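hey so u asked for the seq, here:
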Amino acid sequence: MPDFTRYAVYYLPEPGPLASFGAAWLGWDVQDGTEVPHPGIEGLPRPVAELTATPRKYGFHGTVKPPFRLAEGHEAEGLALAADRLAARLEPVTLDGLHLTRLGSFIALTPRGSKAQLTALAALASETVQGLDAYRAPAPQSELDRRRKAGLSARQETHLQQWGYPYVMEDFRFHLTLTGKLSAIDAPKVEAALRPAVAPVLPAPFTLASLCLCGEDVAGRFHLVKRLPLGG
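ran it, structure tokens below
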């Protein structure tokens, strides 16, 4: 297994129309580890490469366990084995679908579903965060300080100290990021242009049937290490 600077557990769509669209839109295929030409979409206020510069290196994904450095005394092979075992005891989650959503200043795909479905998705994420935390090295102080600049609640500060990331457990919100931060002028234009382009590839229902262990290379780009089927 190649050496990576950090690891993460992501949801990556199975190969197909949604995965292909996401890889092309961002310009980086996390599953193949290759650059992909951007699609031509009319009505965008700026080039796709500019709109997607921030999320590009992560690839088209939904974060389940945020990026972390490997703890001292652990190796990547052990992490992969533990992730495989964890996924085998977790059940797939099915929701009604995905839809285009503006989250603050960026645009993403978010799940549609009942409260029970969304609770099941959040529980899966919490199990993953906890179940692999022994492999996470403590976050450096510089990273903690950077996170705090966003203005964290008391609960988010507790999460940051315990899990190395503030937006987990009760503060988890599953999403597949499509843009970096957008201005109030650009955001509605990007949303309007993206909506018809992404509509044909949105799954309904949407089933999260696997997790993916991913690694970050020295250039800061993430790669698929291993797909982990849920439920064995």
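The domain at 6-229 is CATH 3.90.1140.10 (Cyclic Phosphodiesterase; Chain: A,). The mean pLDDT is 96.
lmk if thats what u needed
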